[in-house]
What we know:
The chain is an alpha+beta fold.
Amino acid sequence: MATIPAERGLDSTPAFLRDGYRFVSARCDKHGSDIFATRLLLQRTICLRGRPAAELFYDTGRFVRAGAMPKRGQRTLTGVGGVQGLDDGAHTDRKGMFMSIMTPTAVRQLGQLFDDEWRARVPAWESGGPVVLFDEVGRMLTRAVCAWAGVPLPGSEVARRTADLEGMIGGPAAIGPRHWRGLLARRRAEHWAGDVIDRERVGTLSAPPGSALRVIAEHRDSTGRLLPRRIAAVELLNILRPTVAVDRYVVFAALALHDHPAWRDRVRGDDEATEHFVQEVRRYYPFFPVTAARVRRSFDWQGYHFPRGRRVLLDLYGTNHHPALWPEPERFRPERFVGWRDDPFGLVPQGGGEHWTGHRCAGEWITIELMKRAVTNLTGTMSYDVPPQDLAVRLSRMPALPNSGFVITNVRQTA
Length: 415
């Protein structure tokens, strides 16, 4: 039996926080291997990257999600008791609830709501000063997804709800005030979402059939019981929060258009080129750094031993940049997706495997739809200038974003 290459030292958590998205790949490169062992948060951990690793990782016969994500991630990002930490029948039931919401018609409806929000904001951008795209897109997505989900959102509450959703997104890998803000944001958001669930259940709200609020409020588990109020709130937020997180991809799309201006003309009016561009943004730019599981029962793989209960991390960013999968992975080349056939273990920005019953993100189709709408607006319905600013993307910060949030000026509506 081969020995898994191992990092020296008591714990690699400080290095993980320092290196961020490059933590796993840098050590894989050092060891000349796509697998190594270390300790993170004082727990023995096996880190993997690459397509064979992704195919292994999403084998539910070998891995479970219960207890895999650190508590700091559950208490900020996903919520305790959410679908991400379930296995077997409980996961299949809960994932089915989410997938019932993600119909092609519903995905297009959310895209149209976002499109409407964007076009409605352009006149204000025209008459105002500099626009921080990240701030604007976050609020637009909050309004759009709440309307789509059947969640009432008065205009006076948009900024507060957006701030809480963003706080949860930014909290897991942060230390100090940013993490504390994430904890507080989670507490406030669950209280708000729980009240919305209660109002739907007693009939003072009436969300449309098939909407996220209606489906989650009425969902019954395999025993016929409604989800507890707090769990229903967690799952409602697991619709709202990931949708708002797409604001980062929208900003990265704007950055890619700025850095590669020839693509502005290529994508304009061309849905296929827009699809290729969006997929390359998802591959190239940082979103989720890693995802976690635990070994269900001991097994051997490629000569390495995986003991029962061991935490395993799959490097999503590193897999999307693996040279064995993606030639010239550090070059932004949307044309690589011409003729590409979907590979559930090769392109994994939002997880891998199968959508319907596996642990791949249920909202991936929403992400692609919203990004395509954003690219169409950035290239076809408005013009703008990009003034000098700090557009550096620090891979040590998780989640990453251009330092300036992407500022635009001299906005003009063109269509």
